Amino acid sequence: SYYAGNKEQSARLNRLTLLYRDTLMQIFPPESGFWKKEKAFSLQAQGQYDEALSLLLPLYEDDEPGTRMYGLNAMSRARLYLDKGDTALAFTNLAASADMDVRYGVRENESLLALSRLMYAKGDYNRAYRYATAAIEDAELLDSRFHFTEVTGIYRVIKESYLQQLRRHERFRLRLILALGATLVVVLCGLAQLFRAHRRLTAARHEL
């Protein structure tokens, strides 16, 4: 994630990762679970998401919900769905991974940071801010300079959008209160006029 903002370094890291995965595939027995995982991740890096899913998903079918491994594999699925552009399934798996991270005290908490980015992209600044706040608190506890720098950069953007949304909501509530107040005044004035008209009509009837 440190290289995400540097395209040249990110491309270099991706090339090295593919080479590393290719080396592992030479070591693991063909068609074994480890081999399939590395093959799936390699396909994912090359943009072949459906092929990667067809290899990965069967491997995770026996994962027991509530375990650390379930959270780790949920994060793997989430990354794949994010790359594929399926935000609904990405969110489901990120939420499961974040739940396991919190439950097992995982301080890197990559899933919370990914959730905050996803919610920000969807325009849900309230949830994005809550997730980012939790992520930055974990980054401070982790005391990792690279991780903290990455999280704080995202946190500032999300926090500013969140505060702008709050200010918009406050202005809207103020305008709504003023409009309701003005409407109430008009209604009260109308009722007062009706009351006076009723009194005049009553007085005229008595005179008759």
Features:
208 residues; mainly alpha; 8 helices; 83% helix; disordered N terminus
How would you describe what is shown here?
With 208 residues, the chain is mainly α. It is built from 8 helices and no strands. The model is unreliable at 1-5 (pLDDT under 50).
The proportion of strand residues reads under 5%
Q: What string, H for helix and E for strand, traces the elements in order?
A: HHHHHHHH
Radius of gyration: 29 Å
Q: How would the global form be characterised?
A: elongated
The assigned structural class equals mainly alpha
Mean pLDDT comes to 82
Termini separation comes to 91 Å
Number of helices: 8
Query: How many E-type strands?
Result: 0
Measured as a percent range, the helix fraction is: over 70%
Low-confidence sequence ranges: 1-5
* Largest sheet data: none
What is this structure's SSE topology?
Blueprint lengths: L6 H21 L5 H13 L3 H11 L8 H17 L2 H18 L5 H12 L3 H18 L2 H63 L1
Helix pairs in contact: 1-2, 2-3, 3-4, 4-5, 5-6, 6-7, 7-8
Structure described in brief:
It is built from 8 helices and no strands. With 208 residues, the protein is an all-alpha fold.
